[in-house]
Each structure stands twice: as structure tokens, then as C-alpha cells.
Design a protein that fits this description.
The chain is built from 13 helices and 13 strands. By secondary structure, it is of the alpha/beta class. Helix 3 packs parallel to helix 10, helix 4 crosses helix 5 and helix 6 runs parallel beside helix 7. The chain binds pyridoxal-5'-phosphate.
């Protein structure tokens, strides 16, 4: 007889985004642009030179060194993994587990709670205000009740869009008894970053961890590379739970080379921010509620139609957005990723047609 899976896993549903064949894919917040042509060429040549018969550099030293330089921190403060989701998993393998609790504030990124549960960690759930802002009284209540080993913030928050002001992050850090993990998957789109506060923490009580990814702004979702910047002790703890040679040689090269194209990445971010403004203006003239965004997506709620009707209407017009309407606190809501100018035009035209 096959054994049953862990009983606590049976009620988990996994994490899925719809796979539908459409022309305009605006559902997973990737960059609409491929990596710069020169980077592709450089990477191809670098791959040709790799000794693929050998295991890769186990410490990913060159990559971590470049990331440390990029953020002006020490190499001991950088930990890399296969996407930032794996970074989060390493953090929870090291700090979570049975008898321990993490805190999240809904609506927010679903993977924080999901990865916690997969690692056997309890999840304390706080609620944001009706505008999706953090309510510091609620944060105080939740962390006092649950004493979380990790308090998660997502800034800019996926899927609602807003970045937390530095003073809010500082206030949460003052309340949180354990690590404060700030997921900045969309950090380059925002004006604030928790990397600033990390610089001013005293080493002995440093507890801020910032998680970033190459999946969104760096146009490399297919490479699967993410990292954290935090106290060296946290990096060591993550390394202790990481499989040997988990970062393949190709990925290490890709990340290292991509950092040479920071100016190109920033130019793309600027273009997407401009397009975000154009989508927001377009939504402003339609019967939908929207929330301001500091990221490369916008959350919106049709006033006179159900989310499901609009989602299907958009798919019929070959435009895919994310249906968030079943997520906690987001009934009726859809999320659109900022695409190329042409894709955004297609989205706005299709949406207008659906709402007519
Ligand atoms: C997209 C996203 C990630 C990215 O995960 P990867 O594993 O790096 O692709 C992480 N956090 C948030 C909030 C995201 O939206």
C-alpha cells in the first residue's frame, strides 16, 4: 500500500496560474521584453566556455560578489537560490517548521503562506484596511498574539500594488519579534526600498531581510534566479538547508552578466512605469475601481460586471489577466500586468468592449 501524503499537505491546493493560449499575456507580471540582445550574445559565449562536466561553484561566489557590489553590501550578506520563491523556502526551512509561526497581512502574495504551510509552519493572518493599506494596530495585535519567527511584508504588494513607506516598514520592524522579510520582487518600480534600513541596522540586532528576483525587472523569469540581502547569520542559516550545488553554472553566469546591463533594465522600468500611467488613465475612464500601483501591474474591479465575466470576455479577445477574485479580501478583482505599449492598447480596447 502506498503511504498517504502528510496530512497537513492534503488541504493545500498548490499554486496555479491559468494556462490559456492567447496573444496578449498580462497575467504573471513578467517583463514583456526579452533580455537585451548583447546580453544574450555574451551569455551564449559564456555558456560555451563552461566546464559542464564539473559541478558549479557551490558558493556561487562570483555571482554573489557582483550582487553585493550592485547593492553596496558585503558578499556574506547575499544568498542566492532558484527564484525568490526558493529563497523564501530556504528561509522557512531554516526558521520555520512545526511549533513556529509566520505572520502575513492579506491581501498579499499567496506564496508566503503557502510555502510556510509546506514547511509545516503555522500562519497567523492579519487583515489590511479596505484600501489594502497596512493597519499598524492590526500588525501589533497579530504579532503580539502569534509571536511570529518571520513577519512577511511584500512591497510593492502583490497583487494590490502599493509600496510601503519607509516609516511603515520601520514601524513593523519595531513590532515584529523575529525576522522581517520584505519581498521586493517589484522593488525597482518603487521609490522606496527596505535595503536602506538594512544599511542602518546594528549588526547585533539586524533582523531585516530583503528578497529580490531576476524574474520581473531583469527579464529573466525563465532563468529562475532570486536572492536575499540580510544579516550574515541568516545567509548561513539558509545555506545550511540548501542542497549542494543547487545553483547551476548557467544560471550563475546569467545572473552575473545581467548585472552589467543595469542601465538597460532601468530604461525598461522607466518605460513600464510610463505605460502603467497610461493604463491607469485608461482605466480611469471606464466603470472600474482601481488602486494606485508602484509595481508593473494594476489591480482593478469592474463595477457593473463580475470578475469572471470580464476575465472570460478578455480571453475571448485573446487577452489574459489574473483573476484574483477568489483571493482573500479581493472579491471582484482582476490584476493586469503592464505589457508593451501595443499589448496595453489591446488590453484597454478589449476591456472597454467587455464593459460596454
Ligand atoms: C513574482 C513574484 C516573486 C517571484 O518569484 P520567483 O521565484 O523569483 O520567480 C516573488 N515574490 C513576489 C511577491 C512575486 O510577485
Amino acid at each position: 500500500m502506498r503511504p498517504a501524503v502528510r496530512p497537513d499537505l492534503r488541504r493545500l491546493s498548490g499554486y496555479h496560474s491559468a494556462h490559456v493560449d492567447v496573444e496578449v499575456r498580462l497575467n504573471t507580471n513578467e517583463s514583456p521584453f526579452g533580455p537585451p540582445e548583447a546580453l544574450r550574445t555574451e551569455l551564449t559565449a559564456a555558456i560555451a566556455r563552461l566546464d559542464l562536466n564539473r559541478y558549479p561553484d557551490r558558493d556561487a561566489h562570483a555571482l554573489r560578489h557582483e550582487l553585493a557590489r550592485h547593492h553596496d553590501v558585503a558578499v556574506e550578506q547575499v544568498y542566492c537560490a532558484n527564484g525568490s520563491n526558493e529563497v523564501l523556502q530556504s528561509l522557512l526551512l531554516a526558521y520555520g517548521g512545526p511549533g513556529r509561526t509566520v505572520a502575513v497581512f492579506e491581501p498579499t502574495y499567496q506564496l508566503h503562506a503557502h510555502i510556510a504551510r509546506v514547511t509545516g509552519t503555522d500562519v497567523a493572518v492579519g487583515q489590511r484596511t479596505d484600501d489594502h493599506a497596512l493597519d499598524l494596530a492590526e500588525v501589533a495585535r497579530v504579532v503580539a498574539d502569534s509571536e511570529p519567527v518571520v513577519t512577511f511584508l511584500c512591497s510593492p504588494n502583490n497583487p494590490t500594488g502599493r509600496a510601503e513607506p519607509a516609516e511603515v516598514v520601520a514601524a513593523v520592524a519595531a513590532l515584529a519579534p523575529g525576522l522581517l522579510v520584505v519581498d521586493e520582487a517589484y522593488g525597482q518600480f518603487a521609490r522606496t526600498t527596505a535595503l536602506e534600513r538594512l544599511r542602518h541596522e546594528r549588526p547585533e540586532d539586524a533582523a531585516t531581510v530583503v528578497v529580490r528576483t531576476f524574474s520581473k525587472t531583469w527579464s529573466m523569469a525563465g532563468v529562475r534566479l532570486g536572492y536575499l540581502v540580510g544579516p550574515p547569520e541568516v545567509v548561513e542559516a539558509c545555506e545550511a538547508v540548501t542542497l549542494p550545488y543547487h545553483l547551476d553554472a548557467v544560471k550563475q553566469e546569467a545572473g552575473r552578466l545581467a548585472l552589467r546591463y543595469t542601465a538597460e533594465m532601468e530604461a525598461r522600468v522607466a518605460l513600464l512605469v510610463e505605460e502603467r500611467g497610461r493604463i491607469a488613465a485608461g482605466l480611469g475612464s471606464l466603470p472600474v475601481d482601481t488602486w494606485p500601483s508602484d509595481a508593473n501591474f494594476i489591480l482593478f474591479r469592474p463595477r457593473e460586471r463580475t470578475a469572471s465575466a470580464v476575465w472570460h470576455g478578455l480571453v475571448e479577445r485573446s487577452v489574459l489577466v489574473r483573476d484574483c477574485s477568489t483571493w482573500p479580501g479581493l472579491s471582484g478583482c482582476l490584476r493586469v500586468t503592464v505589457g508593451t505599449p501595443e499589448e496595453n492598447d489591446r488590453f484597454l480596447e478589449a476591456l472597454e468592449a467587455c464593459l460596454r
